[in-house]
Amino acid sequence: MKTAIVLGATGGTGQVIVSELLERQVEVIAFGRSENKLKLLMKEHDFDQRLSYKIGDIFDYQSIVDAARDAEVIFQCANVKYQEMEGKLHLLGESVMKAADILGKKIVIVDGIYVYGHQIAKGDENHPQQPHTKKGELRVKFEKLIFSNKWKNAKALIVRLPDYYGVTSQNSYLQPTLEGMAAQKVTFFIGNLATPREYVYLPDAAMMIINIAEKEDAYGENWNIPGSGLISGKEIIQIARKVTGNRKIVIPLNKSIIRLIGLFDPFMREVVEIMYLTKEGFVLSGEKYEKRIGPVHATPFQKGLEETLRLLMHKKN
User: Fold this and answer.
1) Quick one: which of 199, 216, 203, 228 has its CA closest to 293?
2) What's a Pfam family this protein contains (predicted)?
3) Are 199 and 41 within 8 A, CB to CB?
4) Nearest residue to 155 via CA among 109, 223, 111, 104
């Protein structure tokens, strides 16, 4: 791969994929709707000559077509807000796939695990898709759209991430906790502090996503991106306290509290139905990746959390 375009380049996953592509000497086009954010991304990369940007609307397939003509691979990292998913997710899928189909491009779709619902088997790519939530059902329909046989020229694959963390993370459940700890504030933790859960460190995810994207035979398939094992909220907070010195209270938010907050916050209102993941967890298998791609990149939580927190503290200063 010599050239790529990243849709949603200023988002949490978009930023790390841009960084990893540049590390591999790939020429990158950052695509987004905010010129200010795109210019800031350019500055963060010291105006690397291999990085350029295009302003466009993810829902306007023609703007993607115009921006992506010279790219070998399209990385689709843009997303829609929880409260807008029902009306906009399908439109997003139609737009990016139509653009990829017109251009005859490879396209990598970054998605999550809501399609699986409750974990009832090993968390590999063959896990039954039996969602019991509205968001899960929408994501199943989204997958069917991506792999629809109406696209004659596009070659798509889907990568699925568990909850994630990292300095670029913006909408993950763990991010408010880490940002609050880094800022020396009273903060909160979404879910049960005792439940061991899987998280992937975003720089690790970016490396594995691009490794998959470089394989010609990876397209037309789902790929699970596992994290670094399991860790409880209590253990995360213990690590964060050592790094930040923050001894202030961390308030766990259970389903009842989230529902109450949701009366005033449309985003939190939508979080309620997927709180099952914070209680049960869901563990992805990396066996397919290991068999066909190579060793899983798994930064230990101690190191990943320390790097994230130190960068967040540096940003505050």
Assistant:
1) 216
2) Epimerase
3) no
4) 104
Contact (CB, 8 A) for 297 and 204:
yes
User: Given this model, what pLDDT does residue 208 score?
Assistant: 98
Q: Which residue has the tokens 């991010």?
A: 175
pLDDT at 96: 97
Separation between Cα atoms, residue 245 and residue 183, nearest integer Å: 10
4 within 8 A of 71, measured Cβ to Cβ:
yes
The sheet with strand 197-201 has its strands ordered as: 163-165, 197-201, 230-231
State the Cα–Cα distance between residues 275 and 93, nearest whole angstrom: 25
Where on the phi/psi map is residue 23: left (φ > 0), alpha (ψ -120 to 50), or beta? alpha
* 233-244 helix and 301-316 helix, angle to the nearest 10 degrees: 50
Q: How many degrees, rounded to 5, is the angle at CA 70 between CA 67 and CA 5?
A: 60
With a cut of 50, which residues of the chain have pLDDT below it? Answer: none
Sequence-distant (≥ 6) Cβ neighbours of residue 260 within 8 angstroms = none
Contact 117, 136 (CB under 8 A): yes
The alpha-helical segments, DSSP class H, found in 45-124 are 61-68, 85-103
pLDDT of residue 278: 87
For the chain, give me the number of helices (H) and strands (E)?
A: 13, 12
| pLDDT at residue 314, rounded to an integer | 85
For residue 13, give Cα distances in angstroms to 130, 162, 258: 26, 12, 25
For the chain, the distance separating the N- and C-terminal CA atoms, rounded to the nearest angstrom, is 38
| Locus of tokens 């009306």 | 87
The CA radius of gyration of the chain, in Å to the nearest whole number, is 19
Residue whose pair of structure tokens reads 């899928």 in the numeric block: 93
User: Taking Cα atoms as reference points, which of 99, 91, 106 lies closest to residue 145?
Assistant: 91
